[in-house]
Amino acid sequence: MPVNKEKYQEISAELKGVTLVAVSKTKPAEDIWELYELGQRDFGENYVQELVDKQAALPAEIRWHFIGHLQSNKVKHIAPFVHLVHGVDSFKLLKEIDKQAEKNSRVIDCLLQVHIAKEETKFGMDEAELDACIEQAKELRHVRIRGLMGMASFTEDSVIVRNEFAYLGLLFNKIQKIVTANFQFDTLSMGMSGDYRIAIAEGSTMVRIGSLLFGARG
Ligand SMILES: *Cc1c(COP(=O)(O)O)cnc(C)c1O
């Protein structure tokens, strides 16, 4: 399936200040090139090995977002170059990212993932875990907490989706009041192909869109 360049232009024009992460997981490097040539620089991947391979094969200007579920033992593979880790769902993982960032003499930007959907399968912390993680994160020097990430329920019912995004927006506003050296809360990553308009209406600053741009995944 070809890359949908018209859709890309259409979505880009619609987003205004919201950052578009083009989710290229399972798609070949040639597809990424097509959007790169149109000016797209932020790409999102879910699998560590795939991300490492693509990073090596594609231009260094690309900002790589890791949006999948990251296992602690794999952090070291992406620590040298990853731009933003979206799915941090435990302090243990955050600590490992901090450790690997220090080894690479850098600071890695992270988003804390919050469980907002009804489904059991979606990863993320609840509000109490989030508060505890933020408290512990204050001591880390090689990660910078940039905000929150969440995924709404997979449903046709837009009221449910809107309520879940609104809840994440509330948590984001709450934590934005925390001021400490390694926090810079300016990013709320929510919204995918099916629900990005609702997410933006509820305050999203970053959407992660795959299938609308690259076609359905096999
Ligand atoms: C795959 C994926 C996306 C993109 O989903 P689409 O529905 O194809 O836009 C966004 N976020 C995460 C975390 C994903 O895994």
Number of DSSP E strands: 8
Identify every distinct bound molecule in the structure, by name, code or SMILES. Answer: pyridoxal-5'-phosphate
Q: Tell me roughly what share of residues is in helical segments.
A: 25-40%
Q: State the strand order across the main sheet.
A: 7-6-5-4-3-2-1-8
Instruction: Please tell me what the overall shape is.
Output: globular
**Tally of contiguous helical segments:** 9
CATH class designation: Alpha Beta
* Rg measurement, Å: 17 Å
Structural class designation: alpha/beta
Per CATH, what is the topology?
TIM Barrel
Strand-residue proportion: 15-25%
Return the CATH architecture.
Answer: Alpha-Beta Barrel
The overall pLDDT average reads 95
Extract low-pLDDT stretches: none
* Largest sheet report: 8 strands, parallel
CATH superfamily: Alanine racemase
Question: How would you sum up this structure, described in words?
Answer:
There is one protein chain. By secondary structure, the protein is of the alpha/beta class. It has a single domain, classed as TIM Barrel. 39% of the residues lie in helices and 20% in strands. It contains nine helices and eight strands. Strands 7-6-5-4-3-2-1-8 form an eight-stranded parallel beta sheet. Strand 4 (84-88), helix 5 and strand 5 (108-114) form a beta-alpha-beta unit. It starts with a helix and ends with a helix. The model has no long low-confidence stretch (mean pLDDT 95). Bound molecules: pyridoxal-5'-phosphate. Pyridoxal-5'-phosphate binds next to strand 8.
